[in-house]
Specification:
- With about 210 residues, this protein is α+β, with helices and mostly antiparallel strands.
- The chain has a single domain, classed as 3-methyladenine DNA Glycosylase, Chain A (Roll), CATH 3.10.300.
- It has 4 helices and 9 strands, in the order βααβββββααβββ.
- Strands 1, 2, 3, 4, 5, 6, 7, 8 and 9 form a 9-stranded antiparallel sheet that branches.
- It is globular and about 40 Å long.
- The protein binds a DNA duplex (12 and 12 nucleotides) through strand 4, strand 5, strand 6 and helix 4.
DNA sequence: GGTGTGATCGTA
DNA sequence: ACGATCACACCA
């Protein structure tokens, strides 16, 4: 029997700000969910995130306005935006604000804390536990999230799925690592240093540039 | 350790 | 045509 993770679900007001402000504060918070098949409790500590700043950001899905795909980003802060990319991967974001401004924080990597067996079952290719959630698509796969989780409320749900981000008292690093974002092509906002990570943590997806 | 490349398909 | 990527091959 695993112990219950203590902590406080982050309130709506936490997300209702510019993603560049929210992102570094999400470091060391816990992503908490329940495995849809086994019912196992899944917990991982966020160690790497990226901010996407809506209309100010050529790298954001929301840069060219609202579409069916990115509609969740234009909705309520504290929603989960899950999108499909490269023909095979799902990635998850925390929708930010302020208000209906379509900011979001991409959840890029996390350190597994609880539910490791369920994560391993969902990520059989992972050779080591440090790889289970080391990348946005890996993290999303380890938690079993896909398009069905798009629009989930991280604050009050479960609306479509029990996903939360919880503060268990571990503060974000005083001085996070900062770099340009991964996978952004030139001229699409690649100059912005909006990636934040826990320096030296082995669960970060890759070395900074 | 690092770099290069194919997979695979929804979206604009 | 091109991705907010991953895994594997290959070289060092």
């Amino acid at each position: 029997m695993t112990g219950r993770a203590r902590g406080t679900t982050l309130p709506r007001s936490f997300y209702d700000r510019d993603a560049r402000e929210v992102a570094p504060e999400l470091l060391n918070k816990l992503l908490v969910s329940v495995d849809g098949e086994t019912g196992a409790r899944l917990v991982a500590r966020l160690v790497e995130v990226e901010a996407y700043a809506g209309a100010d950001d050529a790298g954001s899905h929301a840069y060219r306005g609202r579409t069916q795909r990115n509609a969740t980003m234009f909705g309520r802060p504290g929603s989960l935006y899950v999108y499909f990319t490269y023909g095979m991967h799902w990635c998850a974001n925390a929708v930010c604000g302020p208000g209906a401004v379509p900011h979001a924080v991409l959840l890029r990597a996390a350190a597994p804390v609880e539910g490791l067996d369920a994560m391993r079952a969902r990520r059989p290719k992972a050779r080591r536990d440090t790889e289970l959630c080391a990348g946005p698509a890996r993290l999303t796969a380890a938690f079993g999230l896909d398009g069905r989780a798009d629009g989930t409320d991280l604050v009050r749900g479960p609306v479509r799925g029990p996903v939360r981000i919880v503060d268990d008292g571990v503060d974000p690093p005083e001085r996070p690592g900062v770099s340009v974002r991964i996978g952004i092509s030139s001229g699409r906002g690649d100059e912005h240093p909006w990636r934040y990570y826990v320096t030296g943590d082995p669960h970060v997806s890759r070395s900074p540039r």
